[in-house]
């Protein structure tokens, strides 16, 4: 074991010693480039309310499209982020609900209407050359438009 650690340390010293220049990690994107990404979040909830156990499983799925709009002189990028598909699956005391926008089967369950309202909507993200998010634009307007498109809920006003 000791000889393995010594060999690893020696290898790292040799590797880093061969690097004369610093390495600068930068994004190298071009206007017109498009990247797609799927984000999936699983949530398992267990709680007890007034001695009544509650168990619920939820899955949230978001397919995003990142379109490079502009590379600025500063090296920052403006990127349009669009929600191409969304999914929501829930198992719990109220039953099983499932919505996947890529399955064009019609009706959206009421519990998934908020997720469905994001479909096709976009906002602009400004990102530094190192990948740090600097600004978000049009996000408030996107959320307002989503809320306007949702059916009204009884007893709740905006």
Structural class: alpha+beta
Which percent range describes the beta-strand content? 35-45%
Count of runs of 4 or more consecutive helical residues: 3
N-to-C span: 65 Å
Oligomerization category of the chains in this entry: single chain
Main sheet overview: 6 strands, antiparallel
What is the H/E string? Answer: HEEEEHEEH
Spans with pLDDT under 50 lasting ≥5 residues? none
Helix content: 10-25%
Description:
The radius of gyration is 23 Å and the shape is flat. The termini are far apart. The protein is built from three helices and six strands. β1 and β2 (52-71) form a beta hairpin. With 158 residues, it is an alpha+beta fold.
